[in-house]
Amino acid sequence: MSLPPGTPDLEVLDLLVSVAELGSLGAAARRHGISQPAVGMRIGALERRLGLRLLDRGPTGSALTDAGSAVVELARPVLAAGGALMDGVSDLHRRTHASLRVMASKTIADHRIPQWLSALRKLRPELAMELDVANSQQVTAAIRDRTAELGFVEGPHSPAGLGSRVLVADELAVVVAPDHPWATRRRAITLRELGETPLLWREKGSGTRETVWSALEIHGTPARPAAELGSAAAILATARSGTAPAVVSRLIVAHELRAGTLHEVSLADSVTLTRKFRAIWHRRTPPSGPAADLVGLATRIEAARPTRRDRPAR
Fold this sequence. Notes:
CATH topology of the largest domain: D-Maltodextrin-Binding Protein, domain 2
Strand content: 15-25%
C-alpha cells in the first residue's frame, strides 16, 4: 500500500493541531521550539499541498477556516496512530537493548552467578548484564535503594521488608592450619567451645559472619575476634598461617582441604552450620522480565545440582 500523492508529513499536521489548540502561530512555534516565521512557512506549504486555505491570518492572530478545522479533526487520529507507532518502536528498543543490574555477595558471585548468568545469556542473548560484588549488607542496601534490580545474598535470615526466595543451603566448615592443636584433636568441638575461641571473622555485613554469629550467640556472646578480614581469600591465608580457626563456606575451602593446606575440624553432636543463598528484590518491584528469568533459572539449576558434598577424608 502506497500513500496518495500530496500526503502531508506528520510534523506539519502536528503544527496545525497546535495552532488550533493554542490559537496562534507564535504559541505553536514556542511549543515546537521553532520560530514563528518557520511555522507560517510550513503551514503555507501545507495549504499549497492540499489546495485548501487552512488559516485566516489577521493582526491579532490566526484562526482556523472551516476547511482547517476539518483537516485538524482528520489529523488527530493520524497523529494518534503515529504516536502509537513510535511507542511500539520504543518498546522494541527496550526489549532489544534490555539490561539487568545484579548485585551479589562474593561467594555467590564466585561460585554460583557465572552458571546462572550463562544460562540467562542463552535464554536472552540480547540482554546487557551488569554484576557488582559486595557483602550481603551492601547488596541489601542497594536493593532497598533500588540501585540494583536484583540481589543475591547469604545468611540465616531474609532481609526485613524485601521480597526473597531461598535458592540453596550452603554448608560452612570449621578449618585450622595442619599444625594447629585442633587439627589432631580427637574430640569434636562444641558450639560453646567455638564461641569461646577467638576466630577469624569476616567484616560486619558479611552473610557468613551473620550466620556464624547467630549460631554461636545461643551460648553467649562470642569471643572477641582474632582478626576481622574483608575477604574469604584473606581469611584462608590467615588460617593457613595458624593464627586462629575460621568458619568458611565449604565451596571456598574445598580445594584447600583436598590439598591438605587446611584441616577441617568436626563439630560435636553432628551439628551442621549452614547459611542460605537467597535472591532478594524490592517488594514494590517484584522480578519481571530478565530478573524473573534469572531467579527461575537459578532456582532450577540449584534444584538439579547433586546434593552429595565432596567431603575430604579426615
